[in-house]
Amino acid sequence: xxxxxGVVELARRNGVALGHFNIADLVLLKGVLSAAxxxxxxxxxxxxxxxxxxxxxxxLAAHVRSLREESDLPVFLNADHTHTLDSxxxxxxxxxxxxxxDASALxxxxxxxxxxxxxxxxxxxNPSIVVExxxxxxxxxxxxxxxxxxxSQYLTTPEEAKxxxxxxxxxxxxPAVGNMHGMSxxxxxxxxxxxxxxxxxxxxxxxxxxxxxxxxGSGTDDEDLRQAIAAGVSxxxxxxxxxxAWRNGLEAGLGAQxxxxxxxxxxxxxxxxxxxxxxxxxxxxxxLGHVAAGRKTA
Length: 298
Ligand SMILES: [Zn+2]
Known about the structure:
binds zinc ion, two-stranded parallel sheet, globular, 10 strands, alpha/beta, 12 helices
């Protein structure tokens, strides 16, 4: 089984990106993995501190490990948005393949200092762990927001990105390049799309020399995503779109069977709904085109 570092590097070289999908339960995990399996592409499943608290850090790691052993598909587990060193260490010790150490709410110097410390501590636990750092502000909460906040003044500059990567030693950088966590209601309805600063991505990729992660990918213009991947984004995070699909699928499962109480007859609706979103995104990130017959490709 290839390791996450090799797979991310390969994606970067091939001009494709790994899909990173957040999971908070078995429904999301099954939906994402069955999409990856169908397309035979590697995938990253991620869990934020809240998602990990709900599923259990070690339980989640054990679950993903057992799935990985059973299939020949590279599936990696990421500790998403980890705000303290303790919680990062807990994930590393449980066997997570990568950690997003997120001190981006702090001033730049403090963020850099804490991230550097985290890189050292995490690599002492597992030398091959991939550590991602964050700079700039892309908002919080992978949910539906009333309004899309204007975050344009917090975009990452190529100079600070270069300085941050060189100082901290992170393997992967998550910049603010027009992306944003969560979606507005208009984005959920497909009326508006997030737009990315492609030139900025390209400059950050060139000056840092490390793979980039795009957080808050939900609701982003497809063409912008393609260009962002060509410009150096090697991992794209999708969470809110999956959560919307999870809820819609669950409602469909309940609505279709008024008196049903058997979970494994209701939840497959949600698994399928999540899978469809993951399929669409994975096709886009891996340049696989929209080949499934009779399905909408919007
Ligand atoms: Zn994120």
